[in-house]
Amino acid sequence: MSSAAGPATSIDASYYDTDKILRQAAATFFDHLSEMCEGILLVDSDARLVWINDRYERYLGTLGFESRDEVIGRPIEEVVPNTMMRSVVETGRPILIDVIENPTGAFVVSRIPLHDDEGRVIGAIGMILYDQIDSLKPILGRLSRLQTELAAARQQLARQRRTRYTLSNFVGNSAAALNVKSRARRAAVLNTTVLLVGETGTGKELVAQAIHAASARASRPFIAINVAAIPETLLEAEFFGVAPGAFTGADRRGRDGKLALADTGTLFLDEIADMPLALQAKLLRVLQEREFEPIGSNRMRPIDIRVIAATSVDLGQRVEEGRFRSDLYYRLNVLPIRLPPLRERRADLEALCEYLLEQLALEHEMLPKELDADALALLEAYDWPGNVRELRNVLERACSFWDGLRLTGDAVAAALPAGFDMSRQDDRPAAGPDRVTEPGKPLADDRLRPADDAGAHVEAHPLPLPEQLARLEREAIAAALRACGGNRAQAARRLGIARATLYQKLAAWPDLATDIGD
Ligand SMILES: Nc1ncnc2c1ncn2[C@@H]1O[C@H](COP(=O)(O)OP(=O)(O)OP(=O)(O)O)[C@@H](O)[C@H]1O
Ligand SMILES: [Mg+2]
To answer: Is 490 in the pocket of ligand 1 (CB under 6 A)?
Structure first.
């Protein structure tokens, strides 16, 4: 018998013990809490103050009361300004951590609802966890500044990764232009690799951005990498990124490459023909396997990107010369889009000029200028080796030194590269009535003159040699770019320097890069 009753009794006892232990634990916990906190108060289900602990009493003076009896029974808002206790009682939801500010100071507080056995809210407990918040102010201030900076940096990054152009920015209604737009639209929905082929300044970057913007990836990143502009030794790291601790002395935290940044979005590979053969093999692997390995990591990372590649040289010929892998070429050439040079779509010149003059007017906050018929005729006769970019530069130059609202043939002739149409050059006015001729300022027509009269400067106040050399270098580059209609590859060849070197130098002179329409 006793053996049958034994286990039953022991179950009851353990149940009782647990219950007792729980109650004991709650009481002890409450005592500790009461000691640890700066003050505790309790409200009932009507949010009336029913109890405060001894430590809370020291705040009563600053709250405008003399004794505990004065506050007990009052609605909580009458005692503590800005309190959220009523909301906790009404919603039954705790506010585990919060900062309350009222005329008595700023406090870190916690508010927890109290329930009866049926789960009804019978009141709430409010605890002041910390009342020395003023001593945290410098840290909080710094934190909030850092947060603001972080938010601004994130926004800027997101802006950079968004595209600026849509297909409506590709101006032109000639058959050639319409063909580009219709192929680009098809490419946008197909999610396949696209190869943009065209001379410098024909709008390859514009179309790449537009395809991304019209695709399902539009809200995802658009990451561009100019293969020609990055020295070969850095290209691989730029592409694949570096795993944390990959090299001694390298950034310990590692760095994401463009592939990782473009994940779920579009990777634009500009000047793909300049990619070294070793990297071509690696890129092919990425396109085939849809995974890559950051430098110094031994783990493959899956990746979901659409690749848009661009080239201004004939990739097929590069393949024949053994400078470009044929397997990569076929992989990229799934959907080629040829961007016609401007001279093949002269019918679009007028619309392009109108669009570009409007853009320039917006940028320079002036009224848009219009083109005279003879100005247009002159533009139509020119060959445009630098294509739309060069057209934009010529128009910008013409606007900069032509005061009137109509750009005449003379204005355009003066803005076109020297050497074009010699017959017209002779009758360029030295200073027509419309020219901007600020006293003491040379005519803008002398655009081939050194950027800032370095020669004159040298004689009057000799500059240190490195500075003089830098000026000369800048002039030489500016002149080469002008002579090549902004085509950097040609300019680099003309100067006898590597293309990457030219890009590096241009990075040091952003104004020069802008000048040629970057
Ligand atoms: N069809 C077009 N309509 C309007 N603007 C255009 C058009 N094509 C090009 N542009 C403008 O011309 C300039 C050069 O275009 P973009 O940079 O896209 O050329 P690109 O082919 O990438 O040249 P590059 O090979 O030199 O890098 C940009 O300012 C672009 O907005
Ligand atoms: Mg480009």
So the answer is: no
User: 385 CB under 6 A from ligand 1?
Assistant: no
Ligand nearest to the CA of 339: 1
164/167 Cα distance (integer angstroms): 10
pLDDT at 484: 83
Q: What pLDDT was estimated at residue 263?
A: 95
φ, ψ for residue 95 (rounded to 5)?
-120, 95
Radius of gyration of the chain measured on its C-alpha atoms: 36
> How much is the pLDDT for 494?
85
Q: Whole-prediction pTM value?
A: 0.60
Q: Ligand 1: does its nearest atom lie under 6 Å from the Cβ of 170?
A: yes
Residues 6+ apart with CB under 8 A from 500: 228, 229, 230, 231, 232
pLDDT in tens, 2-56: 444 444 445 555 566 788 888 888 888 888 888 888 899 999 999 999 999 998 9
Closest ligand relative to 311 C-alpha: 1
Could you give the number of structural domains in the chain?
4
Which residue's CA is minimally distant from atom 24 of ligand 1? 200
204 within ligand 1 shell (Cβ under 6 A): yes
Domain co-membership, 205 together with 297: yes
87: left (phi over 0), alpha (psi -120 to 50) or beta: alpha
Q: What's the token pair of residue 89? A: 């009682």
186 and 246 share one domain? yes
| Domain's final residue, options 290, 318, 340 | 340
Question: Is the shortest distance between the CB of 294 and ligand 1 below 6 Å?
Answer: no
* Distance, CA of 372 to CA of 381 (rounded, Å): 14
Give the model's pLDDT for residue 122: 95
Q: Which of 268, 389, 393, 506 to mutate to test the pocket of ligand 1 (most atoms within 8 A of CB)?
A: 389
pLDDT higher than 50, residue 226: yes
* pLDDT of 344 strictly over 90: yes
The residue among 231, 242, 229, 258 whose CA lies nearest residue 160 is 258
On whether both 243 and 381 belong to a single domain, the answer is no
For 114, the enclosing helix (H) or strand (E) is strand 105-115
CA-to-CA distance for 416 and 385, rounded, in angstroms? 12
Which pLDDT value is given to residue 131?
Answer: 83
Expressed in angstroms and rounded, the spacing between residue 234 Cα and the centre of ligand 1 is: 27
Angle between helices 349-364 and 373-381 (to 10 degrees): 110
% of the chain residues with pLDDT over 90: 52
The mean pLDDT of 437-451, rounded to a whole number, is 32
Distance, CA 206 to ligand 2 centroid (Å)? 8
